[in-house]
Amino acid sequence: MPLNVDKPYFQKILVGYDGSPLAEKAVDVAIRFGICEKSSICVLAVARLPEPATTVEVGAVLDDAREHYERGLAKVVERGRSRGVEISTDIVVGHPAEQLIHRAETEQADLIIVGRRGTSLFHKIMLGSVSERVLRYAHCPVLLVK
Amino acid sequence: MENVWVLAALWVGLALVATLLAIWFRISTALTEILVGTVAQLIIGAFVIQAGLGAKTGWITFLAGTGAIVLTFLAGAELDPVIFRAKWKEATMVGLVGFFGPFIGCTLIAYFLLHWSWRSSELAGVALSTTSVAVVYAVMLELGFNKTEFGKAILAACFVDDLGTVIALGLIFSPFTYKTLIFVVVSVGIFIVLPFLTPRFFSRYGGRPSELEAKFLLFFLFALGGLAVWAGSEAVLPAYVIGMVLAGTVGKDQVLVRRLRTLTFGLLTPFYFIRAGSFVSVPALIAAPLVFVVLFFAKMFSKMIGLVPTVKAFKYQREEGLYYTLMMSTGLTFGTISALFGLNHNVITQAQYSYLVATVIGSAVVPTVIANAFFMPRHLLPKDESKRETSAGVPQVSEVPMEAE
Q1: How confident is chain B (405 residues) per 10-residue block, as mean pLDDT?
Q2: B390 found inside a domain
Q3: Does some domain include residue B394?
Q4: Which of B291, B311, B376, B396 is the most exposed place for a label (fewest CB within 10 A)?
């Protein structure tokens, strides 16, 4: 297929956000793409519930996550705006990898950007790495930021 | 152990360990607290002091009991009255079947197959009849079902199911005397008055640093709990109903709910769940693991047998798989409360208690694992390998080491 140079290559970028320094770096990379490519950027934060969930714990985790992410996402939007890039944000519930892949598919994202944390072997075995799962199952290119 | 502060430090230390485990493994704190309680009792009881954790000490019993009451109240307050009003027919029908299926099924299996006494079998039926509202809600949120009519009906049904459990627990095992009658009449009167009284009282005197709201709620929870125990019933029964009737007012006050949660998670529930775990006899579980297997499958099958035709009657056919899987999850709170009630009132032995708690944990964990295994691949696995290549032929993955800006 011939490459259309007039059209931005990554029109829709999805960024995984957890408030960590690497997630902030991933947002910065997305903003650069936004400036260069005029891409639309969506930053997605995922609240992960404990399993099996217990009634009061679910409410507490959701409230905490909402408060934590809303604060961080407001700064992200402001950072984008200061560089002339509009950023939309959303907070969802579930497994981070699953939710990112699901959102990328439903929104037809052209690129997913996630931070890659140095996961310990223990966590890798027990819980799996979010970035590796996204990498393996995403329908579009994935950029891992270290 | 006579030194109160050393004992308190031990329990809070165990709670801390349980919380760290919950964070590391990303599992529920309630679950790790039960497990830590079981292991700690086993180790301390065997190697340090014979009395172990001192779980029967008066003040620990009080804190644990208060934890169960407030936790049950908060669980009831999670009900959405608007949804319940809109879906009460389906919710009541499905919820009652969800309760009676395992209640009857597990009672009969325990009585005829395990040869437990009739009262012990009934207790097993009650403990395994619950459905975890939280597990259902969590998966609904993940899949976005919580906004659909189907999801709302399921959630409301879970509350009816749990209400069936607490009513059964409160009434089946108590002798029906004039005390029961007084308890029921006074409770119903308070359930009617509270939704009107509470918001007016709070708006007039609330919102001060003296935490009047918490004291007001604790007063009614303790008072009705006391009345329930006087009548030979269980204190969590009125607590759950008070939570439900105040769901539209107190349940919507996020600040108050948050304060109660802090009190509950920070101090009360660790004592409740660690204490519940400390009564589990590991030797009994090892001696007869088949009992656990029998109870586990009794719960699963009896729940399914009741729910399949009921759900089909309401034409919820497409999401059946999800529905059954979720409704089979047992709530850790109500499951352990029921088992502990049986142990405290000598309805069941410590070995039977251990089997029930193990089954409660198993039926809370396994459906969650099944739900994950069943749903994760559908979202994660690519539908077509060809889709993994982008049209322009650029590499699928970019891994760019970047310096901080």
Answers
A1: 84 94 86 93 80 83 93 87 82 88 94 95 93 78 71 82 88 85 94 93 84 92 94 89 90 83 87 93 91 92 82 63 64 88 92 94 80 52 42 35 32
A2: no
A3: no
A4: B396
Q: Hey, is B248 helix, strand or coil?
A: coil
In a domain, A28, yes or no: yes
Domain count, chain B: 1
**CATH code where residue A44 lies:** 3.40.50.620
Determine contact: B368 vs chain A, CB below 8 A: yes
User: Which residues between 46 and 105 in chain B have a beta carbon less than 8 angstroms from any beta carbon of chain A?
Assistant: 71, 74-75, 78
| Pure H helices in B328-349 | 332-344
Record: contact A144-B397, CB cut-off 8 A? yes
In tens, the pLDDT along B169-225 reads 888 887 788 998 999 999 999 999 999 999 999 888 877 888 888 899 999 999 999
Domain range for B241: 4-49+59-378
Q: Is A1 within the bounds of a domain? A: no
Q: Which residues form the domain of A100?
A: 12-145
Read off the CATH number of the domain in which B191 is found: 1.20.1530.20
**β-bridge partners, B359:** none
DSSP state of B385: G
Other C-beta atoms lying within 10 Å of the C-beta of residue B178: 8
- Strand arrangement of the beta sheet that strand A142-145 belongs to: A87-93, A40-47, A12-17, A111-115, A142-145, B397-400
With respect to residue B295, please indicate whether it lies within any of the assigned structural domains: yes
Between CA B110 and CA B99 the distance in angstroms is 16
Q: What is the pTM of this model?
A: 0.83
Query: Left (φ > 0), alpha (ψ -120 to 50) or beta: where does B335 sit?
Result: alpha
Residue B392 lies in a domain: no
Where residue B68 falls (left for φ over 0; alpha for ψ -120 to 50; beta otherwise) is: alpha
Give contacts of B393 with chain A, Cβ < 8 Å: 1
Could you tell me if B333 and B372 are in contact, meaning their C-beta atoms sit under 8 angstroms apart? no
Nearest to B73 by CA among B235, B213, B201, B227: B235
Task: Look up the ipTM and state it.
Answer: 0.75
User: Which residue of chain B has the CA closest to A62?
Assistant: B138
User: Number of structural domains, chain A?
Assistant: 1
Pair of tokens at residue B314: 């309401």
Tell me how close the Cα of B128 comes to any Cα of chain A, in angstroms.
Answer: 16
Kind and range of the H or E run holding A14:
strand A12-17
